[in-house]
């Protein structure tokens, strides 16, 4: 039996061994992608191939901690119902023995070209990294071609997460990097055949330009066009908190500008966070046959109290966000839930026109463990308005301060913690609750908040309160379990 076959067999045995324990967890999600066992992190290789969407992901099947990662694999024809496929990549070769780390996929000549980082460590923990290629004709079975990019000069071995695309008849690759001066950077490479890659230089960061001293490492870069702008998404590490900004251990956001493929330069503006909540990292996008730019992100943040999540006792950890369509509106990237997610709705909407006047109220039928709420026609006199989900999460709008706050009861110590941002006029809310997660879309995606939270399992209430008068209309749908095969 080969090393690859051994790893696959052991992973499948682990899935079968802990299946019952995982499924008994009251915090297991209904309609989000999760690992069948063990730990899930970054989305990888997100692509629509021969009419089917494929989302590969970083997976550690043997424990709920990090380690020598596999590429797990989900597929779907409609972005709602998903099939958990066979393992795509195992860390079986010398150039990936400590993990098939994150990467991307592109279609060429009827095949998937999957690029990923091979992680290697010696006995002293010294790291080597290789950007590797694997090919597939059926999206399931991959033929590994080994390293195609070795570490360029000027960088430490923290050089990973290749994202590849075609533009102007040429192929480009961006890689998350750390310079030898310990500055976060995005490296740019170029190829004519997807096999031989030439290093072009630092695209942004690395001690120069607008992001000169913006942290010590940039992870998971993704460069694409949105409207008339080129958008670079990446996840910087080492940013100090500043007011309401950068409150998580690591960040995820973007810069917008113009990429010149001829010169390999990128002029861009300031960094903006993509999500204001507690749990959003390593986003990756693809474009589908409808021309939509679709994003998945990891619903967590590395090194942020990961081992304190209560799901660990049930042998699993972390999930993906819902898929979101990106739009560029008034100089800002917006995220909106995909239209297909309406297919999750079970039955007719429960509707209310509500007037709250210095009171707290539950609304008939507006409760549950897995549901969607759409709140519109919001108007406030003054003071504040809030809604509470069970006993674990609270969303507040302060009229005077024009501020949205998401509070949750910490799963580490039970203390209430918060994330905030300014919203000048709160016009609408679209809220997705799924057992132990919440995703909030404000004003058609002007701002988003994403978080895991852990209410008492028997508490499925939703409370609405206002310090003065508040008016709104609400529609609420129960959401079905996703068909996860």
Mean pLDDT: 97
Q: How far is it from the N-terminal to the C-terminal residue, by CA?
A: 28 Å
Range of helix content: under 10%
How large is the count of helical segments? 1
Portion in beta strands: over 45%
Radius of gyration: 22 Å
- How many DSSP E strands? 32
Unreliable segments of 5+ consecutive residues? none
Class by helix and strand content?
mainly beta
Largest sheet: 10 strands, antiparallel
Shape call:
globular
Structural write-up:
The model has no long low-confidence stretch (mean pLDDT 97). The protein is mostly beta strands. It is globular, with a radius of gyration of 22 Å. A hairpin with a 2-residue loop joins strand 13 (217-226) and strand 14. Helix content is 4%, strand content 53%. It is built from one helix and 32 strands. The protein has one helix at residues 3-23; strands at residues 38-49, 52-60, 70-76, 83-84, 100-108, 111-121, 127-136, 143-149, 155-167, 170-179, 184-191, 198-205, 217-226, 229-237, 253-260, 265-268, 272-273, 281-287, 293-298, 316-317, 324-329, 332-337, 345-361, 370-380, 384-389, 393-398, 403-409, 416-422, 429-434, 437-442, 447-452, 462-479. The two termini are 28 Å apart. Strands 23, 24, 25, 26, 27, 28, 29, 30, 31 and 32 form a ten-stranded antiparallel beta sheet that branches. It has a five-stranded mixed beta sheet with strand order 4-3-2-1-20, with no helix packed on it. Strands 13, 14, 15, 16 and 17 form a five-stranded antiparallel beta sheet that branches.
Descriptive labels:
1 helix, ten-stranded antiparallel β-sheet, five-stranded mixed β-sheet, single chain
């Amino acid at each position: 039996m080969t090393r690859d076959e051994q790893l696959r067999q052991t992973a499948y045995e682990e899935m079968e061994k802990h299946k019952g324990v995982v499924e008994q967890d009251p915090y297991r999600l209904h309609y989000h992608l999760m690992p069948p066992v063990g730990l899930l992190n970054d989305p990888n290789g997100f692509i629509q191939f021969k009419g089917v969407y494929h989302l590969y992901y970083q997976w550690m099947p043997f424990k709920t901690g990090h380690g020598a990662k596999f590429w797990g694999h989900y597929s779907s024809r409609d972005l709602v119902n998903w099939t958990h496929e066979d393992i795509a990549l195992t860390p079986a070769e010398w150039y990936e023995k400590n993990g098939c780390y994150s990467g991307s996929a592109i279609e060429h000549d009827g095949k998937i070209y999957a690029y990923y980082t091979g992680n290697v460590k010696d006995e002293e923990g010294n790291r080597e990294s290789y950007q590797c290629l694997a090919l597939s004709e059926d999206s399931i079975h991959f033929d590994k071609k080994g390293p195609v990019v070795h570490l360029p000069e000027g960088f430490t071995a923290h050089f990973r997460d290749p994202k590849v695309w075609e533009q102007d008849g040429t192929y480009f690759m961006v890689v998350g990097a750390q310079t030898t001066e310990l500055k976060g950077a995005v490296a740019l490479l170029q190829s004519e055949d997807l096999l031989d890659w030439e290093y072009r230089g630092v695209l942004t960061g690395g001690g120069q330009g607008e992001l000169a001293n913006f942290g010590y490492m940039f992870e998971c870069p993704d460069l694409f066009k949105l409207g008339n702008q080129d958008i670079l998404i990446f996840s910087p590490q080492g940013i100090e908190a500043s007011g309401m900004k950068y409150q998580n251990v690591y960040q995820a956001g973007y810069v917008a500008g113009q990429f010149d493929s001829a010169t390999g330069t990128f002029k861009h503006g300031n960094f903006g966070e993509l999500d204001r909540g507690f749990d959003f990292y390593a986003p990756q996008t693809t474009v589908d046959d409808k021309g939509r730019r679709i994003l998945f992100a990891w619903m967590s943040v590395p090194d942020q109290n990961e081992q304190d999540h209560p799901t660990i006792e049930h042998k699993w950890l972390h999930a993906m966000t819902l898929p979101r369509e990106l739009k560029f509106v008034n100089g800002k990237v917006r995220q909106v839930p995909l239209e297909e997610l309406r297919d999750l709705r079970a039955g007719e909407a429960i509707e209310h026109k509500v007037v709250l006047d210095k009171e707290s109220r539950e609304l008939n039928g507006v409760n549950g463990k897995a549901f969607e709420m759409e709140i519109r026609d919001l108007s406030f006199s003054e003071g504040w308005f809030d809604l509470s989900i069970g006993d674990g999460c609270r969303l507040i709008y302060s009229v005077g301060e024009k501020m949205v706050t998401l509070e949750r009861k910490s799963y580490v110590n039970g203390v209430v913690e918060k994330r905030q941002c300014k919203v000048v006029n709160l016009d609408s809310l679209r809220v997705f609750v799924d057992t132990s997660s919440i995703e909030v879309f404000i004003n058609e995606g002007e701002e988003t908040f994403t978080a895991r939270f852990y209410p008492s399992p028997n508490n499925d209430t939703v409370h609405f309160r206002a310090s003065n008068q508040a008016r709104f209309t609400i529609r609420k749908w129960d959401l079905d379990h996703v068909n996860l095969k």
